[in-house]
Amino acid sequence: MTLERLEVCPVCNGTTFHPFLSCKDHTTTGELFHVEQCTACDLLLTNPRPSAADSAAYYLSTSYISHTSKATGIVDYIYLIFRRLTVRWKLGLIKRYLKTNTLLDVGCGTGNFLKHCKERGVNTVGVEVSDEARHAAVNNNLRVEKSLDNLSNEKFSVITLWHVLEHIYHLENTLLQLKNMLEENGIIFIAVPNWQSMDANHYQEHWAAYDVPRHLWHFSKDTMKELLKKNGLKLKEIIPMRLDAYYVSLLSEKYKHDGGTSLFTALSAIAIAFQSNHQAKQEMNYSSLIYLASK
Hints:
Blueprint: E1 3-4, E2 17-24, E3 32-38, E4 44-46, E5 49-50, H1 74-94, E6 102-106, H2 112-118, E7 123-127, H3 131-138, E8 144-145, E9 156-162, H4 171-181, E10 182-193, H5 198-203, E11 217-218, H6 221-230, E12 234-240, H7 242-256, H8 263-283, E13 288-294
Parallel strand pairs: 6-7, 6-9, 7-8, 9-10
Antiparallel strand pairs: 1-5, 2-3, 3-4, 4-11, 10-13, 12-13
Helix pairs in contact: 1-2, 1-7, 7-8
């Protein structure tokens, strides 16, 4: 498979990058990928990376838990528990912004969040490029399209991207599309990992949220703020996702120990996650952050 090299930073248009670290693809191939840092704005990016046409192969694994509802191990089981807990929390977050009761969830996977919202009276639409995940959502009586292009004439009061932006190849085009699909007083919720969190610093190349090569971009608060500003979006608020530190740390321990898990590694993960959340309070450097943005 031929890799492509990105020459221009999508945040600041910088053209100089230096090595940051190298990570293994723990989900599908076991290949080593390199993460580089823009010298101008500090954005981290997976570089070089698979082309968009080749990227689907890196999602074809039962280990890619966000595209399935089946657990193959203890960490997957914990993820599914966390997912059930967070769908309720997410609806609580977006409720006050559902002015016209219309929700678009980009990268909706098998549609767990959409289903929860629809059952509570929200008019929901999803977008999911994975055929398998999309078909599972459609079979659950959800409206899910393959592309944003299919929804270009529709408007939404809330648009959500739960850990999706880091997967998107064409950031500028996608953010412009989403901005145009937002109602006048609508809000976009963008959740992404934060590489400046304490758990990221602790696990380094084993940090599960680098998830190369599926994660193309690795954001900090500053680079997310600049990206939103560059694309005409106003940052309204930043909200932490505290549970993410626990799941990411559990998965990172698994990667660190070559797939092995034990009571010791689980306790280590819990301790690191607790410490990460505690340290994050001062500068809002949680493992994952949600950015609320408007036109």
